[in-house]
Amino acid sequence: MILPIVAYGHPILRTIAKDIAPDYPELNQLIADMWETMYYSNGVGLAAPQINRDIRIFVVDSKQIFENMEPGEKNEYPGDEGIREVFINAHIKTLNGDDWPYNEGCLSIPKIREDVYRPEEVTLEYVDENFESKVATFTGITARVILHEYDHIEGKLFIDHIKPLKRKLLKSKLDDISKGKVKVDYRMMFAK
């Protein structure tokens, strides 16, 4: 089922999400709905707070980024071919490498894109959809998508990483989003 995406201004986007247990109700259906919602909305990642759930789950499909790159572009990200994975109860163990810029957007903040600096590498401890424990290191664009989604389960947004002056210049656009004055091709949920 395609779920509505929570828009900027909704308080759940500023909530630190909680870990869940393996018996979380209808977890498999929730994960399936998250994938369907993400693909329908043309996203490469989606976190539970974006569908109005305060739990530590996000899905990432960075493979599609690489599938849509020009052949030469792929060489800019050695060792990163993309992933399609579910992250549950994720917690960062380490961040490594230099911060580098990339133009990010967010389904919850439509029609706004900004350069965001993030580390080259992240190591996460998490469980997958079968609740098997994992510790894995990700680099390049995949690390960036993971860090963007990880921010969502920590109550942060990509605009928190841009300079205050730039954020101030975006204020009217952000206000329009929170008031529902933006048109997108997917369902949105606004703060009441």
UniProtKB/TrEMBL annotation:
It catalyses: N-terminal N-formyl-L-methionyl-[peptide] + H2O = N-terminal L-methionyl-[peptide] + formate. It holds the Pfam family Pep_deformylase. It comes from the Bacteria. Its cofactor is Fe(2+). Signal peptide: none annotated. Binds 1 Fe(2+) ion. SUPFAM superfamilies: Peptide deformylase. It is an enzyme of class 3 (hydrolase). GO terms for molecular function: metal ion binding; peptide deformylase activity. Its EC number is 3.5.1.88. InterPro entries: Peptide_deformylase (IPR023635), Peptide_deformylase_sf (IPR036821). One of its GO terms (biological process) is translation. Fe cation binds at C106, H148, H152. Keywords: Hydrolase, Iron, Metal-binding, Protein biosynthesis. The active site is at E149. PANTHER family: PEPTIDE DEFORMYLASE (PTHR10458:SF22). Belongs to the polypeptide deformylase family. Removes the formyl group from the N-terminal Met of newly synthesized proteins. Requires at least a dipeptide for an efficient rate of reaction. N-terminal L-methionine is a prerequisite for activity but the enzyme has broad specificity at other positions. This is Peptide deformylase. It comes from Flavihumibacter solisilvae. The gene is def.
